[in-house]
Structures are given as structure tokens and as C-alpha cells.
Amino acid sequence: MKFKPFKHLVFTLIFALSFSTLAFASTTGTQVNKTVDGVKSTLTFTNEKLNPGSNDFTISILDKNGNALPNPNLKVSANMDNSTGMTGMSGMSTDNKPMMIALKQGSKKGEYTGTVNFTSTGKWIVKSTFNVGEQAKNIDVNVAVVKKAGPNFLIIGFGGVMLLIIVVAAINKKKSIKS
To answer: Is the sign of the CA dihedral 105, 73, 44, 36 positive or negative?
Structure first.
């Protein structure tokens, strides 16, 4: 009977520790706003940090009143920024060619979704080309692609230490009751 509160405490701690990393995870994503000639572009990636590989995004093109542009003929491309002349560093190479990104209509009018596949780390330029009336406009957005971070060993280590303390306390408690 004395073990019931202790068992509940152990199970509660194990349950809480298993979800503790989810509590610290960020769900905000990366958002970049840019305005050119009264046209506002908002580029939002689902991830907070952009990593090599597939990255989903949403782009919206709105006029100065916040209304969707009629028939913007939107095209989006991504290209590695080679303006620094530092090819050969961190995956940067001269064979990084601009890639056209297929877009789908988003959930709102004037909003489009797509997936960009960054081939390497470094500075990338996401270029959107669209029509305002009969005039072509461009908006370039600079984004940084970083290496994927591994598991957070600090949190894993803390959880392991807490679990070890709980197990040692349970064993010592069991030994003291038998004596």
C-alpha cells in the first residue's frame, strides 16, 4: 500500500520527461516580409531553421490595400547566392543552378504553397516574379540554410539522470522496507 503514491510519482515523472522535449520545441517557422513598389510579399517556411533538403513554404503576394493581385502569373525560383565568390566552401559550388518551384493555390486568395529542395548549406536567394497589371516585378528574399542539428544531448542527458535517480530511489526504498 505504501508503494502506490510512489508508483504514481514514478509514472508521472516518466510521462512528463518523455514529453518535455516537445514543450521546448518551437512551432513558429521562418517568415520574411518584403515590400516592393507597394506590393507586399510574405514568404513563410514551416521550419524555424532551414535545412538542406525539402522545405515547405507559403508565399502571398498582396497589393498595398492587402488584396490579392488579379492573375499575378507568379513564378518562384531558388538559387545559391554565389555573389561572395567563395565557391567550394560548405557545399557551395558552381553547379548550383536556379531551380523553378512548382506552386499550388493556398488556402486563401493570393496565397500559394510549394516545396523548395535546398541542395547545400549557405545563403540562398528565393526569387518571386509576378505581374502587376502588365508590368513584371521581382522580389528577392535571402535565406540562410544551415546544417541539421543533431539531438539535444543536454535534454537527453538530463532525462537520463532523472530516470537514474528515480530507479536508485526505488531500489533503496525497496531495500529499506525489507530490512
So the answer is: negative
- SS3 state at 152: coil
Q: What are the backbone dihedrals phi and psi of residue 155, each rounded to the nearest 5 degrees, phi first?
A: -70, -40
Residue with cell 508521472: 12
Residue 42, C-alpha cell as written in the block: 510574405
**Residue type at 19?**
F
Pull the grid cell for residue 49: 531553421
> For 44, left (φ over 0), alpha (ψ -120 to 50), or beta?
beta
In the block, residue with C-alpha cell 513598389: 37
Please choose, from the candidates 138, 137, 109, 136, the residue with its C-alpha nearest in 3D space to the C-alpha of residue 126.
Answer: 138
Q: How far is CA 81 from the centre of its chain?
A: 20
Q: pLDDT of the chain along its 179 residues, tens only?
A: 466 776 776 667 666 666 554 444 444 578 888 888 888 889 999 888 888 889 999 999 888 888 888 778 889 999 998 776 544 444 444 456 788 989 898 888 888 999 999 888 889 999 999 888 888 889 898 888 887 666 667 778 888 888 888 888 888 877 777 66
